Amino acid sequence: MKQQPEIEVGIIAREELEFKLGCEFISEQKEKLLPGDYTAVVKNNKITIRTGSGEQMAEKRIKLLPVNQNSFFELKNVIIGVDFHWEQEENQQFQGKLKLIPEDGKVRAINVIGLEDYLKSVISSEMSATSSPELLKAHAVISRSWLLAQIEKTKSLKTGGGLYQTSHETEDEITRWYDREDHTTFDVCADDHCQRYQGITKIHSEKALQAVEETNGELLMYEGKICDARFSKCCGGVSENFENVWEPQRHRYLTKVVDSEFGETTCVDLRQEDEAELWIRNKPHAFCNTTDQKILSQVLPDFDQKTTDFYRWKVEYSQKELSELIKKRSGIDFGEIKKLEPVKRGHSSRLIELKIHGTKKSLTVGKELEIRKWLSESHLYSSAFVVDHLNEKNGLPQKFVLTGAGWGHGVGLCQIGAAVMGEKGYSYKEILKHYFKDVTLNLSYK
What we know:
The chain is of the alpha+beta class. Helix content is 22%, strand content 31%. The chain is built from nine helices and 26 strands. α1 packs across α2.
C-alpha cells in the first residue's frame, strides 16, 4: 500500500468543547489522559483541558495521540448540515489524533488522520452502502483529488503572498463565493461546505472500504496537475463551469457537460433567458432525471430522502414573506420587492447574477450560493430558476413562484447522474471521463 499523507480535518469549534476519550491518549508533552469525559476551554490564551476533578493540562495548542491503533475519541454536539434544511447535532467518534487550538475565543477540534482513512469515512458519509461499486470508486477518486488539489492551492497562496479575494462589493452590486479558502488553520472541514465527514460514527460499509482500497492513490490529473474535482447532488441536466460558481479561473475539465448519453446535440445555450426558461419549465432527459428510489437511496442519506423534487422544483412566497426573508438573509432593507430580474446565467441555466428591485433599493447579487442564501431560510436547491410575478396590486406582485432545476452548484460530477450511470453498467473510469473533460488517472501521490 502506498504511503498515505496525513491531513487535518476541522470538526467543530465551541467555547466549551466536550469530548470523551475511548481509551488512553498521550500529549506531545508526554502527559497521559485516561479514558473518560473532558471539557476544553480557552483560558489566558491557552487551551485548558478539565476533568470533573479539576484542570488536567494547559498549553497553547494540544495534540493528543492515541496509544493504540483502535483508540477513538468522541466529540459532543457536532453540527452537521450547517445552514442547510437538514441541520442537526450529533455526537461523533473519530480515530487518529485530536488536535485542539484556540480560534476566536473558542476551542477548535481538529482530527489528524491519514488521507485514505479519511476517505473511507467520506465515501461512507456521502454515499449509501447500497451504492454501486463503480459509483463509490468514482467518488473516492474525486474526493482524494479534490482534497490534495486544495492542499496544493493553499501552499501556492501562502508562498505567493497575494491577497485571495472571495467577494466584490459596490453600492449597486454584491458578488461573493464560498470555498475552502475560508479555512486557514486546517486542511478541510467536516461538513458539506467541503466534504461530509463523520469519522467512524457512520458505519463504514465494506463496499466503501473496498472502493477506497481499489483506487488507493488514484488521482484525476489534467496537464500534469491534480484536478480540483467537484461534485454536487443533481446538476439538473447540464453541469456548470467552475468560474461561474467560484473564482474567475477557468478549468477546462470543469466546464459544461450534458448529463446524457446523447451528448451535446440535445442541449441549447442555457445562458439565453428564453432557452433557460423553456429548459427549466420542462423535464428533459438526463441521467439525473430519475425517481428510482433504489438509485436515490445510494446518494441521499435518510434525512435527504425526504427531498423528492430535486430535478425540478417549486418554491412560493407572498410579498411579505419574500421582502422579510431577503432583508433577514442579506441584511439589506429593499422595502417591498417589485421584481427578481435574471441578469446573467451560466451554461447550466444557473443564475450567476440576479437583480433585486425593491421600493427602497435595487441591487445585483451573485454568485450562485449567495443568491440561494438570500432567497431561502436555508439554501434554495439551486440558482437555476425562473420567477413568476403574480397577483399584481398597486404595481407590486403579491406572489412569487420560483420554478427551479437541480440541487447544488452543479459543477463536476452529478452524484445522482453518476448513480444512474453506475446502475446502467458504466465503469468508474467512464463515469469520471463523462463529467471531467480530458482528464487522466494517475496512480501515485504527487
